[in-house]
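Below is one such record:
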Amino acid sequence: MNPDLALAPQPTRGPTFVKSRPVRTGDIDAAKQVRLDAVARYLQDIGNDNIEAAGAIETHPLWIVRRTVIDVIRPAIWPEQLTLTRWCSGFSTRWANMRVRFDGSNGALMETEGFWIHISPESGIPTRMSDEFMKPLEESTDEHRLKWKRVIADNAPQADEPDVLDTPFALRVTDIDPFDHVNNAVYWQAVEEIISARTELRSVPHRALIEYLSPIVAGDEVILRNRIDNAGLTVWFLVGDALRAVARVSAL
């Protein structure tokens, strides 16, 4: 595990937001295990619910995610009830790391962290959070100068390198969000496509991590370049020669 991404434990001070939801059949794979794209949707949903419960849906409605970490210690298996607990583990004036812990009624345990950027509805660019919005974040963490740093810094290999495979990934109209970007959960669908042949990674506690570098938009022709090595499975999202995102799945 990369020491730069050791997930902070839940603090003993500051606010947390708790929500429960069932695992449904649309969220699972053939083994009845919750898929990574379903976890990503759960994270979007609890983020929206948290913002709404804080009374900030009018002032801070739009966010994009730059990185998501999902540590699957014990997978959620249908049918199971999940309790999601959300809190801030670090922030700056325009973005925040938000932790979500998943506890399942049948013993599931997943730890996640997302690097979320606050976007202005008027300009569409990262913008400062209000002092009122940041005040409860300050209570949960001492990290008030959070900086972005890529964790998966590998460049995409060439297609003709050993053990490298290219897989086309077709986009659909339903994959596009209000920013005209591919929704972040769709990237996890692509990872699920590749990892389906790597069952050894899903049978043990594992970390799935994705970093979004620049948007994939409607009409892009996406290639998933992937390779498995000692670090685990890596998937590079390419549009032409441009790297748009990179994901890695590895044993914990």
About this structure: The mean pLDDT is 94. The helical segments are 36-53, 131-140, 184-195, 199-202. DSSP finds four helices and ten strands in the chain. The CA atoms of residues 154 and 237 lie 12 Å apart.
